[in-house]
Every structure is written in structure tokens, then in C-alpha cells.
Design brief:
The complex is a heterodimer. Chain A is α+β, with helices and mostly antiparallel strands. Chain A has a domain at 47-137 and 146-170. In chain A, 40% of the residues lie in helices and 25% in strands. Chain A contains 5 helices and 6 strands, in the order H-H-E-H-H-E-E-H-E-E-E. Chain A has helices at 2-9, 14-48, 59-68, 74-77, 122-133, and strands spanning 50-58, 109-113, 116-120, 135-139, 151-159, 162-170. Chain A has a 5-stranded mixed β-barrel with strand order 1-2-3-6-5. Chain A is elongated, with a radius of gyration of 28 Å. The N and C termini of chain A lie far apart (66 Å). By secondary structure, chain B is α+β, with helices and mostly antiparallel strands. Chain B has one domain (3-172). Chain B has 5 helices and 3 strands. Chain B is globular and about 45 Å long. Classes of the chains: A alpha+beta, B alpha+beta. The A-B interface holds A 103-105, 131, 133-142, 144-147, 150-151, 170-171 and B 75-88, 116-117, 120-121, 124, 128, 131-134, 137-138, 141-142, 145. Strand 4 (135-139) of chain A pairs antiparallel with strand 2 of chain B.
Chain lengths: 171, 174
């Protein structure tokens, strides 16, 4: 009915009017589909991103410590170099990593959260290195050594033991 | 040099200053925050926001966008009273000062210590362009503590010479 009215009002042929209407419907449908896809993409990204709060560690040191505590697998001890891309989500006691705190010299980082150790991806390493170098504290007692550990909140997506870091916030 | 840039005194601090000048009373004898009807937390928050631009200007850090906020002790690293995070490229920094819940001193001592934290962290910002090795951090902290003390002592000297010192009004002098 509307098409016919448009036919009359716009003095178009009915064929033109119908084509016009069909195109209109197609455009609307396409916009809706694109919006839905964008929304789903945003929601899926948001659902995968998570916060990991814990001690910031030196991934190289953690890796060496971890392989050092596995005498049954000597082959792994030879590959103790830090690899931020290799998945190495591990559960290990904190005591073995006591000396693995991240420092300003650390280049490959890991975070110990929820009893697991996650490596950061290369972008995360860059962010963590910058964050750790761009901060300072005021000690309550300058005569005492300050805590050597850094607590951090890493936001990102975890995949096979490695976190793709979106942001990092060091305490 | 920065008198034109001095931040305005809040009503409370003006009152404290006048009372102090009139009576010559010692800082600790000045009216408590309770009498001013303001809780220590909001007073501290107002105080740190007032002294920040003053010290930022005195240390010639005006080009930096510095934010300040009070933090609960558990939100700071253990054994610390505050911290600073900066972004050299953006010229932006955030100073966190331990809030009143972490202090078990009187109000004046608490505010003075918060001022020490602000100045201490700004001196860190002054040195932000210098790389610091992990081993040198404690030495740097030691040096910054001394610089902070010297700056605050110099500010007290200004106050004693009759200059108005917003950051260190006689009501809060040592």
C-alpha cells in the first residue's frame, strides 16, 4: 500500500518504486546485521578479557627455577631461556620463586595469580617494563630495605598460559 | 618567585594561619579538625590538592599534568607512605598519598607528613629522565629524602622571614 502511495506521490513507475523499497529494506537489514556483528564482537572480546592480580615476576628466572626443580626431565633444563611465547602456565610454590621478583632490569615478565604463573606477551613485557621504571615510592622507614616485590593487575586475554596484555597497573 | 601562582588558601587554613599569627600558639595547640567541622580524611584530601600546585610550581614542574589522590595503606606497597607513577611522553603523573587511616598521629603531624610525601614524589618526577638501576634505588631514595628535607626547611625559612608560605603555613610549621 505504501509503495503504491509512493508511486503516486513521487510520480514514479511502480517498478521503480518497488526497486526503491527493496533497496531500502536491504540497506536496513545490512545495517542491522553489521550492528549485531559489531556488538557480538565487542561482547566476545569483553568476555575473554580478564584481570590477573598478583606478584610480578621475572619470567626468565621463573622458567629457570621451574626447570631446575624437574630433575626427571634433563632435556628441559637445557632450554631455560626465557620465551614469552611458549605456554608455561605452571603451578609451583611461591617459595621457589622468592628470588624471582621482577626488577627494573627485567625484560620478560610473568605474573603469579591464582596459584599459577602466566607469561606476558611481548606487548605486555614492554608495558610492564615501562610501568616498573616509571614509578617510585616513599618508604616509611628509609633505613629499612623496601619490599622487593611488585603487585600488579594485568588485564588481558589468557591463552595457553600466556596473557595478551591490554593494560597493566602496578601498585 | 611564585607568589603570583600561589594557590588560594582555603578558609580553614586561613583561619588557622590567623589564629596562629594572633596567638603565637604552637601548631599542636591549634584548633582540631573536629572544631572546624571537617573530618580528617576530607581535610587531608583538600590539603594535598592545595599544596600540590604550589610545590609543582616551586619545583618548576608546571608542564606536567599531575594528579593526586589519597590511597588506603593496603593499596600501597608494604612499608610505603605513597608513590608516584609517571608517563614521560604524556608528561602526566599520579601521586598517591597514604590516607588518614594509615596515620596514628595528630592532625598537624599527619598533614606535614603528607606534605613530605608530595614533595618527595615531585622530586622523583624531577629526576624522571634519569635511568636508575635497581641497585641504586635505595641510594636515590636516601638522596631524595635529604633533598625533600632541605626543600621543606627552606620553605619554613620563607615562612619565618614573613613570607606567606601556603605549603607550610605557620600553623603547620615544625
Amino acid at each position: 500500500m505504501k509503495v503504491l502511495v509512493r508511486c503516486v506521490l513521487l510520480e514514479l513507475t511502480c517498478a521503480d518504486a518497488l526497486t526503491f523499497r527493496v533497496n531500502q529494506i536491504r540497506t536496513t537489514k545490512m545495517k542491522s546485521t553489521l550492528s549485531a556483528i559489531a556488538l557480538m564482537a565487542a561482547l566476545s572480546m569483553a568476555s575473554y578479557a580478564a584481570d590477573f592480580t598478583g606478584q610480578l615476576m621475572d619470567a626468565t628466572c621463573v622458567s629457570q627455577n621451574h626447570s631446575g626443580t624437574s630433575p626427571a626431565s634433563p632435556s628441559t633444563s637445557s632450554s631455560t631461556t626465557s620465551s614469552t611465547t611458549s605456554p608455561s602456565s605452571t603451578t609451583s610454590p611461591s617459595s621457589s620463586k622468592a628470588s624471582c621478583n621482577a626488577t627494573t632490569a627485567t625484560t620478560a615478565f610473568a605474573i603469579e595469580a591464582n596459584g599459577k604463573t602466566y607469561n606476558l606477551d611481548s606487548a605486555g613485557n614492554t608495558k610492564a617494563a615501562a610501568a616498573i621504571k616509571s614509578r617510585a615510592d616513599r618508604s616509611a622507614d628509609p633505613t629499612k630495605a623496601m619490599s622487593q616485590s611488585y603487585t600488579a593487575k594485568v588485564t588481558g586475554t589468557e591463552n595457553n598460559g600466556e596473557i595478551s596484555v591490554q593494560s597493566i597497573d602496578i601498585q | 618567585m611564585g607568589f603570583t601562582r600561589l594557590p588560594r588558601l582555603s578558609l580553614l587554613f586561613s583561619t588557622l594561619l590567623l589564629i596562629s599569627l594572633a596567638s603565637g600558639a604552637h601548631a599542636q595547640q591549634i584548633s582540631s579538625p573536629a572544631s572546624a567541622g571537617e573530618d580528617p580524611q576530607s581535610l587531608a584530601n583538600r590539603y594535598v590538592h592545595e599544596i600540590l600546585p604550589y610545590w609543582q610550581h616551586r619545583l618548576q614542574l608546571d608542564e606536567w599534568d599531575v594528579h593526586i589522590l589519597l590511597s588506603r595503606p593496603q593499596d600501597l606497597r608494604p612499608g610505603t607512605l605513597g608513590n608516584i607513577h609517571w608517563d614521560r611522553d604524556k608528561k602526566a603523573a599520579t601521586i598517591r598519598v597514604m590516607d588518614s587511616s594509615g596515620y596514628h598521629t595528630d592532625l598537624v603531624a599527619m598533614l606535614k607528613d603528607m606534605q613530605v610525601t608530595v614533595v618527595h614524589e615531585l622530586v622523583h618526577l624531577e629526576l624522571a629522565s634519569l635511568p636508575v638501576a635497581e641497585a641504586d634505588r635505595s641510594n636515590q631514595e636516601f638522596a631524595i629524602d635529604h633533598l625533600t628535607d632541605a626543600l621543606l626547611a627552606a620553605d619554613e625559612g620563607r615562612a619565618a622571614s614573613g613570607f606567606l608560605s601556603v605549603a607550610n603555613p605557620p600553623a603547620l610549621s615544625r
